[in-house]
Design goal:
Blueprint lengths: L2 H85 L2 E2 L2 E2 L2 E10 L2 E10 L3 E10 L2 H18 L7 E10 L2 H9 L3 E6 L2 E5 L2
């Protein structure tokens, strides 16, 4: 190899090294820019997480507040029907000897709560109380509450077991559906109860 060829080779290697160094510098700059972008994204995600936690806390407080209102309304309805039936223990034209309120019982893995239970010598009435009755309340009364009552209260197996849906508000179509399925409907009418016997 001649001196001229050697000089050209060294010059070519220097140029290639300069290009490689420039490429490495460019890659490092891109990496630094990407790292800076990722840092901004991480900071934004952290800020979003804090904001989301605040929003969820607000939603939890609102749910508790409005759930509390719903629970208060339900308690008011239960208290009304309990007090009314305690003062005048007549339902569907029958007088009852005693009444229990908010009875919870469990047996063999089944547990349920019953708002009002009225009993006389021949009949037992299980009353589910709602502030505003929905179709799901009627379905739950018939498919869950009624079978659970029969399992949990075998001492009433000799009595005719009847079920009622009591509410401050019930749509006419739901009232008709309840009556058609043998469920007595209790409605508030001023300061008294209006009974529509099934």
């Amino acid at each position: 190899m001649t001196d001229e060829e050697l000089k050209a080779l060294v010059a070519g290697l220097a140029v290639a090294q300069d290009c490689a160094d420039a490429q490495l510098a460019e890659n490092a700059a891109r990496r630094a820019e990407a790292d800076a972008r990722q840092d901004r994204i991480d900071a934004q995600l952290a800020e979003n997480a804090v904001q989301q936690a605040k929003t969820e806390a607000k939603l939890d407080r609102l749910a508790e507040m409005y759930g509390g209102v719903g629970n208060s309304q339900g308690a008011a309805a239960e208290e009304f029907y309990h007090n009314s039936l305690k003062a005048h223990p007549v339902l569907a034209g029958m007088r009852f000897d005693f009444m229990d309120k908010n009875v919870t019982r469990s047996r063999a893995g089944v547990e349920d709560e019953f708002d009002l239970i009225l009993v006389n010598g021949q009949e037992v009435f299980v009353v589910e109380v709602k502030y505003k009755a929905h179709a799901s309340d009627l379905e739950r009364l018939l498919t869950k509450k009624a079978p659970n009552f029969r399992r949990l209260f075998p001492e009433h197996s000799g009595r005719r077991q009847r079920f009622a849906l009591a509410a401050f508000h019930i749509h006419d179509d739901l009232k008709e559906a309840a009556l058609a399925q043998g469920v007595t409907v209790l409605q508030r009418k001023g300061d008294v109860i209006e009974t529509l016997a099934a």
